[in-house]
Write a structure and sequence with these properties.
Blueprint: H1 3-18, H2 36-43, H3 50-76, H4 95-126, H5 138-162, H6 166-171, H7 192-212, H8 218-235, H9 254-264, H10 275-279, H11 284-299
Helix pairs in contact: 1-4, 3-4, 3-8, 4-7, 5-7, 5-8
Length: 300
C-alpha cells in the first residue's frame, strides 16, 4: 500500500469515527449488568455524536477542575494571614492583568483546546482505546495515570528547554513569562502554538502508552486530564504552604520549583517532578536560591 493510499484510508476511518453515533447496546458485553456509573456514562452518548459529546464532556471537566482548583488560591489572596506563604509577596497582580489573563485563557480554551478535545475520541478509538464497559479497576487507573505523569514530565522538560532558545522564546514562550509572579490560572496563559505543542505531552502520552504498552480506557483519560490540571494550577499558584506536596514528596516539583522559573526566566524546566532538572543540572541556581529563601523564612 502506497503512503498516499494509507493516508487516505486513515483519514477515511477518522472521518467515519467522527460521525459515529452512540449506541449503549454496542458498549455492553453480552449478559453484562452495568453499574450505576457505567449506565449514566454511556447514556450521555446514546443517540448523540460520540466525538462531539466526548469533547464537550472533556471541556466541562477541564473548566471545572481548572478554575475550581484555582478558587482556594484566589480566596487566599484576600486573606492577610495567608500572605506569609506567598513566594513573591512583593509582587501584585493588578485587576487589568488578571482580566487580560482570563480573556486570553477563554479564547485559547475555546478555539484551541476544545477542537483538540473534539478530535481526541476518534483518534483514541483508532489506536485501540477501550470505550466499552466495564470501567477499569481503580488500581489500574492509578498506575496508568502515574505513568502518564512520568511521560508528560519527560516530554515537557525537553520541549520547555527548547522553548527557551532564541526565536522559540522570543516568538512563542515569552507570552507565558509575561507573569513573573504566577498565579493559578496563569498555568495555561500561553501562545496558541505553545498550548498545542506542550499539550501533546498530555494527549500523546496516553496514546503512545495504549499503542505500545497496554490498553487505556477512555474514562481514564478524563481522570488523567483532571489530575494534570490539578498539578499545573498548583505549580503556578504562587504559594508554598507547609502542607504542599513538595514538602512530603521530595521528588515533587511544586509551586516553589516553578515559581523560581518564572521569577528568574531560567532553569527548572520540568512540569511535575524534580529529577530531570537535578540530573541535567538545570536546578543548581534554584537550589542555592531556595536554601536562602528557606533560611530567611526561619529567621522571620
Amino acid at each position: 500500500m502506497s503512503n498516499t493510499t494509507l493516508a487516505s484510508a486513515i483519514l477515511e476511518q477518522f472521518m467515519a469515527e467522527m460521525q459515529t453515533t452512540g449506541n449503549i447496546a454496542r458498549t455492553m458485553p453480552s449478559g453484562y449488568t452495568p453499574t450505576w456509573a457505567e449506565q449514566k456514562w454511556f447514556s450521555l452518548f446514546e443517540g448523540r455524536n460520540e466525538a462531539i459529546t466526548f469533547g464537550i464532556i472533556a471541556f466541562i471537566v477541564h473548566q471545572v477542575v481548572y478554575y475550581g482548583r484555582y478558587l482556594p488560591y484566589a480566596i487566599c489572596d484576600y486573606i492577610p494571614a495567608m500572605r506569609k506563604y506567598k513566594l513573591q509577596p512583593d509582587k501584585e497582580i493588578s485587576d487589568k492583568q488578571w482580566w487580560k489573563c482570563v480573556r486570553s485563557l477563554l479564547v485559547s480554551q475555546i478555539f484551541v483546546q476544545l477542537p483538540m478535545m473534539m478530535f481526541f475520541l476518534p483518534a483514541a478509538k483508532m489506536i485501540g482505546f477501550e470505550c466499552s464497559a466495564p470501567f477499569p479497576a481503580w488500581l489500574r487507573v492509578a498506575f496508568q495515570v502515574s505513568v502518564f505523569f512520568v511521560i508528560e514530565d519527560f516530554y515537557h522538560y525537553w520541549a520547555h528547554r527548547l522553548f527557551h532558545y532564541g526565536i522559540f522564546y522570543k516568538r512563542i514562550h515569552k507570552v507565558h513569562h509575561e507573569y513573573t509572579a504566577p498565579f493559578g490560572i496563569a498555568a495555561e496563559y500561553a501562545h496558541p502554538l505553545e498550548t498545542a505543542i506542550l499539550g501533546q505531552g498530555t494527549i500523546a502520552g496516553p496514546l503512545f502508552f495504549n499503542y505500545f504498552i497496554e490498553q487505556v480506557h477512555i474514562t481514564t483519560m478524563l481522570i488523567w486530564i483532571a489530575a494534570r490540571l490539578w498539578q499545573t494550577v498548583e505549580a503556578h499558584c504562587g504559594y508554598d504552604f507547609p502542607w504542599s506536596a513538595s514538602h512530603w514528596l521530595p521528588f515533587w516539583a511544586g509551586a516553589s520549583h516553578h515559581d523560581y522559573h518564572h521569577m528568574a526566566f531560567v532553569d527548572n524546566f520540568a512540569s511535575t517532578f524534580r529529577w530531570w532538572d537535578r540530573i541535567f543540572g538545570t536546578d543548581n541556581r534554584y537550589q542555592a536560591y531556595e536554601a536562602r529563601r528557606l533560611q530567611k523564612a526561619k529567621t522571620e
